[in-house]
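# step 3/5: fold
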Amino acid sequence: MSTGAAETDTQAEQAANTSGITISSLQQTLKEKLDAEYVDIEDMSGGCGQAFNAMIVSSQFENKNSLARHRLVNSALKTEIAAIHAWTPKCITPAEWQKKQGVGGS
């Protein structure tokens, strides 16, 4: 009989699979619906798929303020967001992304 860590890992994996929300499913949806050039998502929930931080780079964010960008993302992920506990996106344009990469945090 196998109990302990393996059972816990299996339960965590099953919980994530129950909601159907995975990093790759979120990335795919954002790339398809927002034409995102870059999407980096981090599961902050320890693998259970209930809390995510995201960096999303899309030209659809051009000429939009922060609130409008978040609304665009939340609209694209309406079903997914309803199934998770916490969602924290950072939404930037390709130009902002290039500047951020070139400057390194100043």
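# step 4/5: annotate
Helices lie at 5-19, 23-34, 66-76, 78-83, 94-103.
# step 5/5: archive (pending)
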